[in-house]
Design brief:
The protein is α/β, with parallel strands linked by helices. It is built from 5 helices and 8 strands, in the order E-H-E-H-E-E-E-E-H-E-H-E-H. Strand 1, helix 1 and strand 2 form a beta-alpha-beta unit. The longest helix has 18 residues.
Length: 228
């Protein structure tokens, strides 16, 4: 389930023990923030949960182990990421993927973010009134120029998905708001938890309709599962 998020998650495994060969996924989206009353990533999580109740085979060779909708705040994501990474079963040889979804209202396509940056530079308050300027997210990691790259093959994934007629590209800038905060912290936790982490920026539904966004997320999940 979700860690105090605004929607219940898919609690526990949705496949039986014999499906241990599947790639385990944990999905996160965000709720409303600022003037955005309906976040497409919250709707995407809800739609994925609905699909899982109907047909768990839709995502093969992936297994969606949990899904969460998080408050758009640094404090909330700090706590949620600690719990999510801390609760992962020791992956061993079996890959575990954390796929974080966020919206970029200025974008007109999908973006696979390649790295998180150790800098919080919020141009406006998060949902708890926090607005750090040019501060490191993890102080022990040094300056605000420190980055952590995802180990997932973003260029290859992007290329494959473009061949499936999706408008997608890789990106080296996840911004400096809660999306980047989440990505950098998740990549930081992954050094200990062993999870594979990716942040996907989706456009607003005025740019790309929700049904297309859902098809893209499903295609991305399947391709990541195939690649790892």
């Amino acid at each position: 389930g979700s860690w105090g998020g605004s929607t219940g998650g898919v609690s526990g495994p949705v496949f039986e023990e014999e499906d241990q060969g599947l790639v385990e996924f944990h999905l996160t989206g965000f709720g409303k923030f600022g003037h955005l009353k309906e976040n497409p990533t919250e709707k995407l999580i809800e739609l994925i949960e609905e699909e899982l109740r109907v047909d768990q085979g839709e995502f093969l060779p992936a297994r969606i182990a949990s899904s969460h909708v998080w408050e758009v705040s640094a404090e909330f994501t700090d706590d949620a990421l600690s719990k999510l990474h801390g609760n992962l079963n020791n992956p061993g040889n079996r890959p575990v993927v954390l796929l974080h979804l966020g919206v970029d209202c200025g974008a007109n396509n999908f973006r696979l973010e390649q790295k998180g940056v150790n800098e919080a530079d919020f141009m406006y308050h998060d949902e708890r009134g926090f607005s750090p300027r040019k501060q490191p997210i993890v102080r022990k990691n040094g300056t605000t120029t420190h980055t952590i790259q995802t180990t997932l093959p973003t260029a290859k994934l992007s290329s494959i998905l473009r061949k499936q007629k999706f408008d997608v590209q890789t990106s080296t800038d996840a911004g400096r708001f809660v999306c980047n905060w989440t990505y950098y912290l998740s990549l930081h936790h992954a050094k200990k938890s062993g999870a594979l982490v990716l942040f996907l920026h989706v456009p607003s539904v005025s740019q790309v309709k929700l049904a297309t966004q859902l098809q893209f997320v499903k295609a991305l999940i399947r391709q990541i599962a195939v690649q790892v």
